[in-house]
Design brief:
single chain, alpha/beta, Collagenase (Catalytic Domain), three-stranded parallel beta sheet, 3 helices, about 25% helix, about 15% strand, globular
Length: about 110
């Protein structure tokens, strides 16, 4: 990929990304006609973390912060981490199997939004 939105890139972007269907969560969007944030400074929280011996909790936070910093480099958005029980614009969870959103993970699915 070249970083240019050419036909090859568009073709790759149209490939299925995971087993989750891209459909809005009607419980969240019901009654909402605006599906974007009204501001550019957003908060996020890590509600639950992965329990791996190979990756510490601190390292997981660092990886997530690096990802949001990368988004900030290429967009007008800024991101601030808040406590794991605070209200936030974005909630991150590391979960597996049936995790309560109606789209359970299987052995081929590692993430969805």
């Amino acid at each position: 990929m070249t970083g240019v939105a050419d036909k090859e890139t568009q073709g790759i972007m149209n490939l299925p990304q995971c087993s989750a269907v891209d459909k809005p969560n009607v419980n969240i969007l019901q009654g909402s006609s605006n599906r974007k944030w009204s501001r550019l400074s957003l908060t996020y929280r890590l509600e639950s973390h992965a329990h791996f011996q190979q990756i510490s909790y601190a390292n997981q936070i660092s990886i997530v912060q690096d990802a949001f910093n990368e988004w900030s480099k290429h967009t007008p958005l800024s991101f601030e981490m808040v406590c794991n029980t605070c209200l936030s614009d974005i909630v991150l969870q590391f979960v597996e199997g049936d995790h309560g959103d109606g789209v359970p993970f299987d052995e081929k699915t590692i993430a969805h939004a």
